[in-house]
Write a structure and sequence with these properties.
- This protein is mainly α.
- It has 2 domains: 176 residues, Growth Hormone, Chain: A (Up-down Bundle); 182 residues, MFS general substrate transporter like domains (Growth Hormone, Chain: A, Up-down Bundle), CATH 1.20.1250.
- The chain has 17 helices and no strands.
- Helix 1 packs parallel to helix 7.
- The longest helix is centred in the middle third of the chain and has 30 residues.
Length: 385
C-alpha cells in the first residue's frame, strides 16, 4: 500500500521524479562527454579519426542492440530491480573506462557502457507510469530535460575541465555521479508495482501488429533524426550564413524546456494527437525560418525548432504508457521504438551533409528536415488506431 503525504500525493513522488531526471542526466553525460576529448584521446592512444569514430559508435551500437532486451526485462522484473542491476554496472563501466590502458580495453568499456545505459530509456517511462499517472506528460518531460542537461554539461563543461586535468581524470570524475545515484537508488528508491508473468516476447510481437506502434516509431525516428541533424550541422549553417555560431545554444535550450512545458500542456488539454500536429507545424515552419528569416527572427526559429521537435518526442514516450492495450508492456514497446528509432539519427545527419555536397548550399538540407518533420508529425497525428 502506498504512503501518502497530507496533500494526497505519494510521499516518494518528488524523490522518484528526481531519480528519473538524474538517471537521464547521467546517461547523456557519460555518452557524450568523450566528444570534446577527441584530440587528447587520439594523441595519447595514437588513434586515427576512424578509430575514434568506432569508439564512439560502439556505445551507440550496444544501445541499439540491447534496448529491446532491457525493455522486456523491465516489464518482467519491474524497473526497480532493473535499475538495481544496471546502475551499478553503468558506474563500474564508467570507472573502468577511465583506467583503460589500450584501445581494445577502451572499446570494450564503451560497448559495456552502452549495454547498461540501454536500459534507461525503456525503464524511465515506467517510473512516470507508477508515480504520476495523472500527469504522465509532465513527468516524462522531467526526464527528457535531464537528457538535455546531461548533453549540455558534457559538451559545455568538459572542455574547461580538460584545461585543468587529463581526459582520464575527467572520465573518472564523471563516473562519480553514476556511482552516487546507484547507491541512492539502492537506498531510497521504492516501487509498488510487480513485473508481469505474461509472455512478454509474445506481447511484443503482437504489439508490432498495432498500427499505432509504427506511428510512434516514425515519430521517434523523425524527432531524434531531425534534432541530431540540426545539432550536428547548425554551427556549420550559421558559419555559412556568416552569423555568430554561439547562438546555436538556442537549439538545446529549446530541448531543455520542451519536455516539462509540452508535457504539462498536453496533460491539461489531453488531446495529445492535436498537440503533436501543432508542434509538427511549428517545427516545419521554424526550420524553414532558419533558412529565410532575418537574424533576430532566426534566433526564435532556432529555439522553436529544438522545442517543437523534442516536444513531440516527449509526447511519443508518454503514449505507450497510457495506452489501454499496450501499457502492460510499455517498457518493451519503448525499447522497440527507441531502438529502431535510431535509424533516424543514423541516416538524417548523413543526408543533410550529402545534400550540402550535392547542392553547394545548406538551404536544401534544411528544407529536407522541415518536410520530414512536417509530414511525419502532422500526417502521423491523424492516423486512427
Amino acid at each position: 500500500m502506498k504512503v501518502f503525504n497530507p496533500k494526497g500525493k505519494p510521499l516518494y513522488y518528488s524523490i522518484m521524479l528526481s531519480f528519473s531526471f538524474g538517471i537521464a542526466f547521467i546517461m547523456h553525460l557519460l555518452l557524450f562527454c568523450t566528444a570534446p576529448m577527441v584530440t587528447p584521446m587520439m594523441e595519447e592512444m595514437d588513434l586515427s579519426h576512424g578509430d575514434f569514430g568506432v569508439l564512439y559508435s560502439s556505445a551507440m551500437l550496444s544501445l541499439i542492440l540491447f534496448r529491446i532486451p532491457w525493455g522486456l526485462l523491465g516489464d518482467r522484473i519491474g524497473y526497480l530491480n532493473t535499475f538495481r542491476i544496471v546502475l551499478p554496472l553503468s558506474a563500474a563501466s564508467a570507472v573502468l573506462r577511465a583506467f583503460s590502458h589500450n584501445y581494445l580495453t577502451l572499446l570494450l568499456c564503451q560497448f559495456s557502457l552502452g549495454l547498461t545505459l540501454a536500459a534507461m530509456l525503456p525503464c524511465l517511462p515506467l517510473i512516470a507510469k507508477e508515480w504520476s499517472p495523472g500527469t504522465l506528460g509532465f513527468s516524462t518531460g522531467i526526464y527528457i530535460s535531464g537528457f538535455a542537461a546531461g548533453n549540455a554539461t558534457a559538451l559545455g563543461i568538459t572542455p574547461y575541465l580538460l584545461e585543468a586535468m587529463g581526459w582520464r581524470q575527467v572520465l573518472l570524475l564523471y563516473s562519480g555521479p553514476a556511482l552516487i545515484i546507484s547507491i541512492l537508488w539502492w537506498s531510497l528508491a521504492r516501487s509498488h508495482t510487480r513485473g508481469t508473468t505474461e509472455s512478454l516476447l509474445k506481447n511484443l510481437m503482437e504489439s508490432m501488429r498495432e498500427k499505432i506502434v509504427w506511428v510512434w516509431l516514425f515519430f521517434i525516428m523523425a524527432s531524434m533524426g531531425s534534432y541530431d541533424s540540426l545539432a550536428t550541422w547548425i554551427p556549420k549553417v550559421l558559419e555559412m550564413k556568416e552569423v555568430n555560431k554561439p547562438i546555436a545554444v538556442l537549439l538545446p535550450l529549446g530541448f531543455f524546456l520542451a519536455g516539462p512545458v509540452t508535457g504539462f500542456v498536453s496533460d491539461r488539454f489531453h488531446d495529445r494527437k492535436t498537440t503533436v500536429a501543432i508542434l509538427g507545424a511549428v517545427a516545419s515552419a521554424s526550420i524553414l525560418g532558419i533558412n529565410y528569416a532575418p537574424t533576430p527572427l532566426m534566433l526564435l526559429c532556432l529555439f522553436l525548432s529544438g522545442f517543437s521537435i523534442i516536444g513531440v518526442l516527449t509526447i511519443t514516450l508518454t503514449l505507450p504508457v497510457e495506452h489501454e492495450r499496450l501499457s502492460q508492456s510499455a517498457g518493451s514497446v519503448v525499447g522497440l521504438i527507441s531502438s529502431l528509432g535510431n535509424i533516424g539519427p543514423l541516416l538524417m545527419p548523413f543526408t543533410f551533409g550529402l545534400l550540402i555536397d550535392v547542392t553547394g548550399t545548406f538551404r536544401v538540407s534544411l528544407i529536407f528536415v522541415a518536410v520530414v518533420v512536417g509530414v511525419i508529425f502532422i500526417v502521423g497525428s491523424r492516423v486512427q488506431e
